[in-house]
Amino acid sequence: MVQLTNFVYAITAASIIGAVTAHPGSHDGASAAELARRSNFIASSKRSLAGCASKMKARGFEEKAIARRAALAESIRAKRSIQGGRQYLKARDLATVLATDHASDLEGVTLNTDYSTLFSGNVSCVLQPEVTQGPYYVDGELVRQDIRETQGGVDLYADVQIVDVATCEPVPNLYLDWWHANATGVYSGIVASGNGDSSDATNIDNSFLRGVQPTDEDGVAQFLTVFPGHYTSRATHVHILGHLNPTVLANNTISGGTVSHVGQVFFDQELISTVETTSPYSTNTQELTANADDQILSEEAADMDPFMEYVLLGDSVSDGILAWISIGIDTSASYSVSSAATWTEHGGVANSNSGAGGMGGGSAPSGTGAPGGGMTAPTGAPPS
């Protein structure tokens, strides 16, 4: 097991476009009112963030990010005994989203290329429009960094920095939920049609590729996971959800607090295509939806760029990927979310109102609330 020590603190331009939900049959086009609300949201967020870039640079964010990204990359490569490596840079073109393939525009990168070139970038941060959590959200997940368990796939070292859009300052002590499908397009903890073998009731008790991490003083949470797999009708993505002021329970889960952010992050199509040629991704028989064909992405792709920056740690994706993103949020916001299930030390418990189905042998741990009521905020609902 690879243990991560030197956290990377990444600041890049990033945002999430509006969405309805995230699974088959649940992402119809947005209404005119919803689209108008999103447009106003984007316009106001751009204005409020106009001064953030200069403030963040003046406070030394860029220098700190470069140094820590480099330290983490070298630490991982050393522990994985990876030789070479630095020339295999992949970088986003921040000027566009789907109009380009997001391949590196750097020429002549070698082992001697300075890290300030490899890891520097726009230090601005774009407020991330809220999206619903999707039908496969499970509350009660463990606070842990390594969420792979026994899942196969390409190791992904993910760094997410959360910034307060009102102050341009990092947000410490925010507990970030992170979850996604495995290499063959299946979510743990959910028994439902469209999520793998719906006759396999044991999946309700699984917890792979789900976890929670608190942000540190620099607003950074980090996860060691595997690159997400695809499933029918959606481009490859990861769900995130931020909790402010929750209580950490004795069983290493969280309860209560306020849900201040709900979103998704995405990956370059070229990277997805490369990963999909490797095992076990290549055994996935579900239809692969390209970024350009994803309804959620396509609605406002001209204005938003919700992709993670990344570098390959070695000669191929099989050596692992280091990816990072910075997200601006409104810390005064409060959203109400409902879970499809709750994970407990004895297994999963489905929320009977979620439509996800399945019931494990567990019962909700003390302090986490009812299966469908854990981790809820008292007011509001995120725009869809």
Low-confidence segments, ≥5 residues, pLDDT <50? 1-22, 24-29, 85-95, 99-113, 355-384
Total number of domains: 1
- What would the CATH topology be? Protocatechuate 3,4-Dioxygenase, subunit A
Helix content bin: 10-25%
Cα Rg? 20 Å
Number of strands: 15
Largest sheet: 6 strands, mixed
Biased composition (Gly residues): 355-375
Region (Disordered): 352-384
Signal peptide: 1-22
Domain Intradiol ring-cleavage dioxygenases: 138-235
Reconstruct the topology from this structure:
Layout: H1 32-48, H2 52-58, H3 61-79, E1 89-90, H4 115-119, E2 138-139, E3 155-164, E4 169-170, E5 174-179, E6 210-214, E7 220-226, E8 237-244, E9 247-248, E10 254-255, E11 258-266, H5 269-275, H6 295-298, E12 309-312, E13 321-329, E14 341-344, E15 347-350
Parallel strand pairs: 2-14, 3-13
Antiparallel strand pairs: 1-12, 3-4, 3-7, 5-6, 5-8, 8-11, 9-10, 12-13, 14-15
GO molecular function, one term: ferric iron binding
Keywords: Dioxygenase, Oxidoreductase, Signal
Organism: Morchella conica CCBAS932
Question: Which descriptors would you attach to this protein?
Answer:
alpha+beta; four-stranded antiparallel sheet; disordered C terminus; 6 helices; Protocatechuate 3,4-Dioxygenase, subunit A
Written description of the protein model:
The structure is a single chain. Helices cover 15% and strands 20% of the residues. The chain contains six helices and 15 strands. The chain has helices at 32-48, 52-58, 61-79, 115-119, 269-275, 295-298, and strands at 89-90, 138-139, 155-164, 169-170, 174-179, 210-214, 220-226, 237-244, 247-248, 254-255, 258-266, 309-312, 321-329, 341-344, 347-350. It is globular and about 55 Å long. Keywords: Dioxygenase, Oxidoreductase, Signal. One of its GO terms (molecular function) is oxidoreductase activity, acting on single donors with incorporation of molecular oxygen, incorporation of two atoms of oxygen.
